Amino acid sequence: MKLLLKIGAIASHPVFLPVFSLLVYAPLVAKYGQDALILSLIWILFVYLFLPLIFLKYIRKIHLAEPNLEERRSIFKAYALINFGFAVVSIFLMSEYVSFFVSAGFLHVLMLLLAFVELKASWHTAVWAFILSASLMVMYNYQLVGLFQTSWLVLGILVAVAFIRWKAKAHTPFELGMGIAAGLLAALPILFF
User: Fold this and answer.
1) Which of 36, 42, 118, 168 has the least CB density, counted as fewest CB within 10 Å?
2) What radius of gyration, in Å, describes the C-alpha atoms of the chain?
3) Structural domains in the chain (count)
4) CA–CA distance, 161 with 178 (Å, rounded to integer)
């Protein structure tokens, strides 16, 4: 059972946020063609996953499996800067993603603020609640009728992630709820861009 919980936690980890965003943004970025999407995916994995993990683990010496509050602050600062950087780059490459990365940066700023007041919120549930809220905002902005089923899928994943994190005793129900609230709130800028 512990192995299944660990696999679920890794598969739904927040560092894969840009990959998960394809659940929502696939219809909008389909016009770029498969080669451009593959190149973008490789670039995102390199900059969003590989470089931050090397920086956080080997330069900042953060215990990534169970970071304390100070280490969580460093993680959220790094990912807030990365997301805002991606928003700037997206202006030139995939303009559909600008509001997504601005909102993702806002999510990490919210998580950073919660860490500064020493509230531990679940990063996992925050990201999946963010994707759920983003799917609803994109569905409303672009009138994408087929995205409704995807929203249900993301909601199911959010519930599963919350259950996995609770069952693994990684978070209390309050911390899971704080993560969900932060994620839902952070996606609001998508509605206005």
Assistant:
1) 118
2) 16
3) 1
4) 14
Residue 94 has pLDDT above 90, yes or no: no
| Strand, coil or helix: 193 | coil
Considering only CA atoms, which of 12, 24, 43, 30 is closest in space to residue 123? Answer: 12
DSSP of 28-52 = HHGGG-HHHHHHHHHHHIIIIIIHH
pLDDT given at position 124: 94
Query: Which of 85, 97, 76 shows the shortest CA–CA distance to 179?
Result: 76
Question: Max CA-CA distance within the chain?
Answer: 46
pLDDT category of residue 33 using cuts at 50, 70 and 90: confident
Q: What is the DSSP string of 98-134?
A: HHHHHHHHHHHHHHHHHHHTT----HHHHHHHHHHHH
What does the chain come to in residues?
193
Alpha carbon distance 52, 32 (integer Å): 27
